[in-house]
Predict the 3D structure of the following.
Amino acid sequence: MPPRTSTYLGAALLSGASFALLSFIASEDKKSDSQRNPRENDAALALGLFTPGEAQKSSVHIHKSFLSEAEIQQLITFAQEKKNCNEVGIVKKDGKGIASSSAADTVWTTSYLHTNDAFAVELPALRAKIFRAMVDADQNHFHILNHDKHYEDSQDQDLNLRTVEFHEYIPGGSLREKLHYDAGSIVTIDICLGNEFEGGELTFPEVDGSTTVVDSKQFQKGDAAFFMSHKYHNVLPVTGGLRRVLVAELWRGPNKICPHRCCTIDSCNYSLSRNFMERSREHLSILG
């Protein structure tokens, strides 16, 4: 697949880019087996990105021992503290991938560590390491960004982490949405934070009908998987233990601090209090 250079560089294109990004999540009443949204190709091209079909031709790249044991422990401690204090956005889902209404049904929890910029403020070195590695992965493997000059010398302030997510899966947890990809982002990183689980393989359906399976032997504690965000990917059901991973997305857009995976490069009014209110239905369900 030949390299493509992004043409989305100027701030003057922000409004149009935001429209293109939002079109990914527009009404999907015309789904097909090859596309989840009939406008996804146009939206990808408007953002200077590979279309999902083109991204399928790319490969997944594994960086062994990307994080040290100390970095992993620091990250897990940070995530648990933020969760316990309700200082980050949280989404809980059941075995069907639907927002859970009870603790008993929850098998997958996502905590948005970038909420109120907490990840960047409290773990700046770790954030910088992840960001740099994602830019390098693109430069070395994917060639989506414009690399006319070394990024260290670039004044491009639009390149940021869109989301930093701490995922926890227990038995029954999975990501099985057909044709799932991270619409509007450039590169996704998936970091394994522990080996104490069974199942939960990271999989990638390929254009030839085969499926690339990244199993526990290939993807161990501290390892990082880098892939084009528009490449379809899934997580098979966890059958035992606790699967914990960190997922981040690189995009051309502002540094997001809202407590969810934002779908606009414009200002967002989704607040932590709103996230808490949405989760309160779980407590109401428990009370009856």
